């Protein structure tokens, strides 16, 4: 494709002159002969202005139809804004890029699964078995896995930097002098779409994996202080009560809770049992939902930049549509938000 510089060389004028002529700059003082010569050479070289190339690219992108496959239900999004924020990030970035989301599917629904081969790309949110995804959409270089614990190496993926997040959590608690540290972890699963009724396969929550690893390296790991629950305030409430029942007279001095909604329930259980936060037990959550800063006490938590995760996934898919060949795996950093539930006072 011809450039302004090439036209300028052929016409024997500067690139600036060519640019101004082709953009019909009426303030430019140039002979009609020169103006005609520039247009003639541009036509011979099949030059297309940047503006036209950009318009053509936007038109092509507007025809791209992508799909969004999420395991979370609308009710899940209402109860826990984590996946809602991810979806909003995807939608906002797709709108900015001119991509059209033609289908939004929920993995935990009961819909009959039909092939999605007509789509130009697919973003998968949540830990859904990649073989099942491949049955739905076979074009693997047009799939982006987002928030998947074990994404396939040959597909693009976006995850939080869980290892660094857990280093921040454990490091903060150790700096405060805590050596008896518990964890309330969600029951993470690798979901499958290939069975009726839908089944789930056990997965490994990276938060729990790195938390256990870091404590074990320091000789502080105790399996009886790891309690599993579902990802809800009710799950956190039940798990904290179970932890307190186990501990009896040897109460952990700190507890990391794998999500803020779970931490809300855990704080309720501590309050009912007369355990003061942070005096008797420091508590750290994960997500930094809006409510976290308004709890009593305000919750120290890990901010997950979920909207950025969604935006990044949409950007990676566009790169694939435009021809990038190699798979890319992105880890989005987190931020530790220190508040009063660990003893901090502003």
Automatic annotation (TrEMBL):
Q: Does the keyword Ion transport apply?
A: no
* PROSITE patterns attached to this UniProt entry: HTH_LACI_2 (PS50932)
SMART domains associated with the record: HTH_LACI (SM00354)
Q: Which UniProt keywords apply?
A: DNA-binding, Transcription, Transcription regulation
Q: List, alphabetically, the InterPro entries matched.
A: HTH_LacI, LacI/GalR-like_sensor, Lambda_DNA-bd_dom_sf, Peripla_BP_I
Transcription regulation as UniProt keyword = yes
Ranges where the HTH lacI-type domain occurs: 2-58
Q: Write down the superkingdom of origin.
A: Bacteria
What PANTHER family does the record point to?
Answer: HTH-TYPE TRANSCRIPTIONAL REGULATOR EBGR, LACI-RELATED TRANSCRIPTIONAL REPRESSOR
| Protein name, as recorded | LacI family transcriptional regulator
């Amino acid at each position: 494709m011809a450039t302004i510089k090439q036209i300028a060389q052929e016409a024997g004028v500067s690139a600036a002159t060519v640019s101004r002529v082709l953009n019909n700059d009426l303030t430019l003082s140039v002979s009609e002969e020169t103006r005609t010569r520039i247009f003639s050479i541009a036509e011979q070289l099949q030059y297309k202005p940047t503006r036209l190339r950009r318009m053509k690219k936007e038109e092509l992108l507007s025809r791209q139809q992508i799909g969004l496959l999420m395991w979370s239900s609308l009710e899940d999004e209402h109860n826990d804004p984590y996946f809602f924020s991810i979806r909003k990030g995807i939608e906002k970035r797709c709108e900015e890029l001119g991509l059209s989301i033609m289908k939004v599917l929920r993995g935990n629904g009961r819909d009959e699964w039909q092939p999605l081969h007509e789509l130009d790309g697919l973003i998968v949110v949540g830990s859904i078995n990649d073989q099942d995804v491949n049955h739905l959409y076979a074009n693997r270089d047009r799939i982006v896995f987002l928030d998947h614990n074990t994404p396939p190496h040959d597909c693009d993926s976006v995850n939080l930097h869980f290892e660094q997040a857990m280093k921040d959590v454990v490091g903060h608690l150790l700096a405060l002098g805590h050596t008896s540290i518990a964890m309330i972890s969600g029951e993470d699963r690798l979901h499958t779409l290939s069975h009726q009724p839908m089944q789930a396969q056990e997965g490994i929550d990276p938060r729990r994996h790195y938390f256990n690893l870091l404590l074990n390296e320091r000789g502080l790991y105790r399996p009886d202080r790891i309690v599993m629950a579902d990802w809800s305030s009710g799950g956190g409430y039940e798990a904290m009560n179970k932890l307190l029942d186990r501990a009896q007279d040897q109460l952990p001095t700190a507890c990391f809770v794998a999500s803020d909604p779970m931490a809300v329930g855990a704080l309720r259980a501590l309050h009912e049992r007369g355990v003061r936060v942070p005096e008797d037990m420091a508590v750290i959550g994960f997500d930094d939902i809006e409510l976290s800063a308004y709890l009593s006490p305000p919750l120290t938590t890990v901010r997950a930049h979920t909207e950025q995760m969604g935006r990044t996934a949409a950007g990676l898919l566009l790169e694939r549509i435009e021809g990038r060949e190699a798979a890319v795996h992105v880890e989005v950093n987190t931020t530790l938000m220190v508040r009063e539930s660990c003893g901090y006072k502003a």
